[in-house]
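Below is a filled-in request sheet from our internal design queue. Each sheet records the structural input a requester submitted and the sequence that came back. We keep these sheets so that new team members can see what a complete request looks like end to end.

REQUESTER: design group, bay 2
PRIORITY: normal
MODE: inverse folding
CHAIN LENGTH: 461
BACKBONE (tokenized):
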């Protein structure tokens, strides 16, 4: 049995946390004892493996945004400093934090203009794999690089021999590494526009070393604006231990799990015992499956077993009271309504293609938009969602977690989540307790869908 105490004794804990990962995983970990400065800026980076791309956006020094590591329940503070030529904000995706910290322009905070700053402070209540991104001119800012990982650690998390976190996303580049138009209107009205260069941690199919016969916690976060992944792991056995930042009740084998933009999965991976053996993570959702990242077994075999993984603690999410819950019907549909007036600093795409309950969101504007519905603080609700379109929509709620309780597509995974990918023509019931006051955005995380109408918000008072 691997316990934290055993690893502490052997010094293994160091290798399992920030410092060691920085060396092996190639990303920077920021541990937030003091306020973290996140400076949004432009940079240049090699993303396709050969050409330098100008106009990449990031926070801080690296082309890849820092991986923030925060302790569950402990105060975290970040100062967003804007060195971009346009306004921005930060939204902390999946975190159940106060509304004023949620990063949505007009609804929860003003834009942060160039050379201005905004202070975020909160104590994340849930441990797991989360991420952060702007909520202003989102298609461009996320498309150009502003998608970072935020890992909330529970000191009682099971200890692994190794950990790798992968930030999965594409880039829209031409053959010379230059950014091309972020979207095509006809694709925005369908699946969304796909990138041309597919990366993990800002590299095409990177390779990582992991201890032979060891247990690796592999955190996968889909921060792409469009792409749905169907994950297959070749060469190793793996169990899904958490989805969208929340533990699953019973870990299950990774068997072609499909996840959409915004979603995360945590895997316990048992590396093969043979030194040099290769493990490949594939996305098989595309016509031509491709390698997302690879892992090579190194060192003397550790002889672990998947059964050695102790369960993750449940997060303290309030159980909805299903008997007393109010049902809210919600319909996702296409719309042909006229283009929105572009009075939004936060980037209108100039089209309406989608609607929630027949209303296309008019953009982030100073004029108050009516909420989809008003929820009473402390009451339980069932969002009865119907997808009237032939496309999948990873629908995302800010500020509160919900669980799927029934779907026309068969059994649902009953874990808490912030994003549910509803399939074409599916109807699903999502239950939640409205325990966080404020205006909470509800939108599709295919950003072109979000930005062309499939957005609204709930008011909890
Ligand atoms: Cu990651 Cu409003 O979303
Ligand atoms: Cu959508």
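RETURNED SEQUENCE:
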């Amino acid at each position: 049995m691997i316990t934290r105490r055993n690893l502490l004794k052997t010094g293994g804990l160091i290798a399992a946390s920030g410092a060691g990962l920085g060396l092996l995983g190639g990303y920077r970990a920021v541990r937030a004892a003091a306020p973290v400065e996140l400076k949004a800026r432009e940079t240049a980076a090699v993303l396709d493996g050969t050409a330098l791309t100008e106009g990449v956006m990031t926070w801080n020094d690296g082309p890849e945004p820092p991986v923030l590591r925060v302790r569950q329940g402990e105060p975290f503070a970040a100062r967003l400093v804007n060195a971009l030529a346009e306004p921005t904000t930060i939204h902390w995706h999946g975190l159940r934090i106060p509304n004023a910290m949620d990063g949505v322009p007009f609804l929860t905070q003003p834009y942060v203009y160039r050379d201005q700053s905004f202070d975020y402070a909160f104590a994340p209540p849930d441990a797991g794999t989360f991420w952060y991104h702007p909520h202003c001119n989102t298609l461009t800012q996320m498309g150009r690089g502003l998608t970072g990982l935020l890992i909330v650690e529970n000191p009682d998390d099971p200890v692994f021999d190794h950990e790798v976190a992968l930030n999965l996303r594409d880039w829209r580049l031409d053959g010379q590494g230059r950014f091309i138009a972020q979207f095509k209107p006809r694709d925005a009205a369908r699946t969304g526009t796909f990138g041309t260069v597919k990366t993990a941690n800002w590299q095409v199919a990177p390779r990582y070393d992991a201890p032979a016969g060891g247990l690796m916690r592999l955190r996968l976060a889909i921060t792409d604006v469009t792409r749905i992944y169907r994950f297959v792991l070749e060469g190793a056995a793996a169990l899904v231990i958490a989805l969208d930042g929340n533990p699953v009740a019973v870990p299950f084998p990774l068997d072609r799990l499909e996840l959409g933009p915004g979603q995360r999965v945590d895997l316990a991976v048992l590396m093969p015992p043979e030194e040099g053996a290769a493990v490949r993570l594939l996305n098989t959702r595309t016509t031509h499956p491709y390698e997302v990242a690879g892992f090579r077994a190194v060192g003397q075999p550790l002889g672990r077993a998947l059964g050695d993984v102790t369960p993750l603690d449940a997060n303290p999410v309030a159980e909805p009271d299903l008997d007393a819950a109010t049902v809210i019907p919600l319909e996702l549909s296409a719309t042909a309504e006229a283009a929105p007036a572009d009075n939004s600093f936060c980037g209108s795409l100039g089209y309406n293609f989608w609607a929630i309950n027949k209303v296309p969101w008019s953009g982030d504007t100073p004029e108050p938009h009516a909420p989809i519905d008003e929820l009473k603080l402390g009451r339980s609700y069932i969002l009865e969602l119907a997808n009237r379109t032939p496309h999948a929509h990873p629908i995302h709620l800010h500020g509160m977690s919900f669980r799927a309780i029934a779907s026309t597509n068969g059994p649902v995974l009953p874990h808490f989540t912030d994003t549910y990918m509803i399939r074409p023509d599916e109807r699903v019931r999502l239950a939640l307790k409205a325990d966080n006051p404020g205006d909470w955005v509800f939108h599709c995380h295919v950003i072109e869908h979000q930005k062309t109408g499939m957005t609204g918000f709930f008011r909890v008072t």
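SHEET NOTES:
- Residues 18-25 form the longest helix (8 residues).
- The CA atoms of residues 14 and 25 lie 14 Å apart.
FILED BY: M.R.
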